[in-house]
Amino acid sequence: MNACVLHVVGTRPNFVKAAPVITALTTAGCAQTLVHTGQHYDARMSDIFFRQLGLPEPDTDLGVGSGSHARQTADLLVALEQELTARAPALVTVYGDVNSTLAAALAAVKLGIPVAHVEAGLRSFDMAMPEEVNRRLVDQLAELLFATSPEAVGHLAREGVAADRVHLVGNPMIDTLLTHVEQFDPTSARAAHGLPERYGVVTLHRPANVDDPEAAAAAARVLADAARHLDLVVPLHPRGRAALSAAGLANAPGVHLLDPLGYVEFMSLVRGAAVVITDSGGVQEETTVLGVPCLTLRTTTERPVTVTHGTNRLVRHGELVPALRKLLEGGGAAPVEGPPLWDGRAGGRIARVITGWLERHG
Ligand code: UD1
Ligand code: UDP
């Protein structure tokens, strides 16, 4: 055995979730290998996270890059099969619900290598989302399933996953937030982007909001309306840039379009925001913990705990401006106590389960 645990990461949210698990396993003295699939490759989508989150340099970058779902997943499978065969780890750890997550889990189990899934059991019940397909499949393949919230444990039980494989550990993305929160400086971030004291942050990248030009135009229109009430800073994911720009978002008064931001710069803006408008999974969770009101431009969420225990509200296009105005007038819901176990110690809990498992099986 060359490494006890091999982590596969490939996209921006994977980096944020993996960092505390890698740190905790390092503290536990566990040998680890880090494989970057290269699904995200721009410096602003990848390198900057490694630097800011103190992630180790990847042992390999597979350089798979972009493509259609079939092409990207197929390329990931082939490259990961070779890598896992060569390295023969005792356990492969995968994060979240992206194509790199599914490909790594599938390549590993077909080679007889057990898989641990961090962020198991989330369900939007919308199979039109590529992430929902990925999550459901990965949860059927995994040997160890780490859940962030009790309803995720319930979903796994209903899908027939054996209870002894499932561990409610809290949320490693929130470990990362709490590790870096003292670096989140809203005043400097606001000044750096010429924003007034009161502003909103927007991120949009879900295919349902940005892929189809009509959907992108509808999103751009509603954001331009919202920007009449509050300046909006919009660090744009590369996926939506062309469509949202073509829809005129760049020229809307009060809209500040930016390239994707590094983690600390982004979270600094979020921490100081009057409201966040998003379709991101992670951002719904981060605003919950920071107590920043979040309006999610989606019809479903796989993270309902951010609504019941946090500051999140799902809004359709027509509901966005009224909801925003209500928040600005002080009528928004105050944060409640925050989800249980989102306390900055999820990485340690995951490491304890993994090291225990390795002692029995490694
Ligand atoms: C992926 C995940 C999504 C996650 C998101 C996080 C899948 C199916 N989707 O979506 O669940 O929420 O990451 O950010 O895995 N691109 C660049 N530079 C990059 C990366 C991508 O320009 O570094 C552009 C390319 O044009 C590419 C497009 O973005 O075709 C989409 O990238 P891809 O990795 O396929 O999916 P995301 O939309 O990033
Ligand atoms: N993020 C960032 N800079 C940005 C946008 C996002 O650092 O410009 C961080 C933020 O912490 C977020 C994470 O990247 O939670 C993952 O974001 P994304 O929305 O891409 O993925 P999702 O959570 O929707 O899968």
UniProtKB/TrEMBL annotation:
Name of the protein in question: UDP-N-acetylglucosamine 2-epimerase (Non-hydrolyzing)
Stated family: Belongs to the UDP-N-acetylglucosamine 2-epimerase family.
UDP-N-acetylglucosamine 2-epimerase domain span: 31-354
Protein keywords: Isomerase
InterPro entries registered for this protein in UniProt: UDP_GlcNAc_Epimerase_2_dom, WecB-like
Residue ranges crossing the lipid bilayer per the database entry: none
EC number(s) on file: 5.1.3.14
Family matches, as PANTHER family: UDP-N-ACETYLGLUCOSAMINE 2-EPIMERASE
Organism: Streptomyces lanatus
GO MF assignments: UDP-N-acetylglucosamine 2-epimerase activity
Domain of life the protein comes from: Bacteria
